[in-house]
From TrEMBL:
Residues 30-49, 78-106 are annotated as: Disordered. This is PiggyBac transposable element-derived protein 3-like. It comes from Spodoptera litura (Asian cotton leafworm). PANTHER family: DDE_TNP_1_7 DOMAIN-CONTAINING PROTEIN, PIGGYBAC TRANSPOSABLE ELEMENT-DERIVED PROTEIN 2-RELATED. It comes from the Eukaryota. Residues 90-100 have a biased composition (Basic and acidic residues). It holds the Pfam family DDE_Tnp_1_7. GO terms for molecular function: sequence-specific DNA binding. Residues 38-48 have a biased composition (Acidic residues). Residues 100-318 form the PiggyBac transposable element-derived protein domain.
Length: 325
């Protein structure tokens, strides 16, 4: 049995400052046993500014109750005690920094180190390359006036970027989920979903549809959808606001993995899975005929929402329509 200690106000403040997945938190401070040793705040007693707390208050025992966003769900956590590490364990996967260093060691680069800021700069260059494209990455560092990018060159050296490009890893190779075809990017994708949900602007009229990410390489989930603006790439089931803000997305892995509600089919399963990720409330959903069915609309209504969608002629359930079209 390891020794157990009480949380202090200082421990809780450090935890809240480091974890931006916390949506709401209450801190309950235990009164001191000897009131003669307590001292006054350095500021207004009605103030909630943590900078005004005294030493005795910062070291006082306390209890944390918080609401956090975990993979799109809102969960309540409670921390009264901890073992060994004074900061409660994070609820999400290890950061890319840790997994990248672990991958480097597995490849024989035992002295490889990378900082969180360096990882952010590396990803920033990748994002920039998506809209400021060049024939090859090295052109960003060339001195010719027509392709040199001073921002990229000042951000990171070319050799360091290529080293990170070889070693960067988003997942933990020793803890890969079997059957997940996107396991290599799953921690990064889950992080994005948490952030999209956290900053969701709160619109109630939402669109559910598929979205394509262009890709021309080899991967078992690559799709070809004829007639789409992006014909080759990864298909993502997405729920968005009317202005195009992506609230939650799930990469498509095949019909065998997407049929989580067999009675509603793949399309209905996608809709119900995406709806389940939203914060509590009443919504109006809009979808095309791939998703819409009478049983699905009934289920959405039973959940307290509205839905509008086009429907295929073989799904009208013998409704008394004058014309199916």
């Amino acid at each position: 049995m390891s020794s157990r200690s009480r949380l202090t106000v200082s421990d809780i403040i450090s935890y809240l400052e480091d974890d931006d997945d916390v949506l709401e938190a209450d801190v309950y401070v235990t009164p001191p046993e000897n009131f003669d040793k307590s001292d006054e705040d350095s500021g207004n007693e009605e103030s909630t500014d943590i900078n005004c707390l005294s030493r005795h208050q910062l070291l006082a025992e306390a209890e944390l109750r918080a609401k956090v966003s975990v993979e799109g769900r809102i969960e309540e956590i409670e921390h009264q005690e901890f073992q060994e590490d004074p900061i409660p364990t994070k609820l999400h996967d290890p950061p890319p920094k840790k997994n990248t260093e672990q991958n480097a060691k597995q490849k024989g680069h035992v002295n490889f180190k990378v900082g969180s800021d360096e990882i952010k700069r590396f990803i920033g260059i990748l994002l920039l390359s998506g809209y400021n494209g060049v024939a090859r990455y090295r052109m960003y560092w060339e001195q010719s006036i027509d392709c040199h990018h001073p921002g990229v060159a000042a951000c990171m050296s070319r050799n360091r970027f290529e080293e990170l490009l070889r070693i960067y890893h988003a997942c933990d190779n020793t803890n890969i989920q079997p059957g997940d075809k996107f396991c290599k990017v799953r921690p990064l994708w889950e992080l994005l979903n948490r952030k999209w949900l956290k900053y969701y602007p709160g619109d109630r009229n939402l669109s559910i549809d598929e979205s394509m990410i262009p890709y021309f390489g080899k991967h078992p989930t690559k799709q070809h959808i004829h007639g789409k603006p992006i014909r080759f790439g990864y298909k993502v089931w997405a729920i968005c606001t009317r202005l195009g803000y992506l609230i939650y997305g799930e990469p498509y892995q095949g019909a065998s993995t997407g049929n989580t509600h067999p009675s509603f089919g793949v399309g209905g399963s996608v809709v119900l899975d995406l709806i389940s990720k939203l914060p509590p409330g009443k919504y109006s959903f809009y979808m095309d005929n791939f998703f819409t069915s009478i049983p699905l609309l009934s289920e959405i209504k039973s959940l307290g929402h509205d839905a509008t969608g086009t429907i295929r002629g073989n799904r009208v359930e013998n409704a008394p329509l004058k014309d199916v079209k």
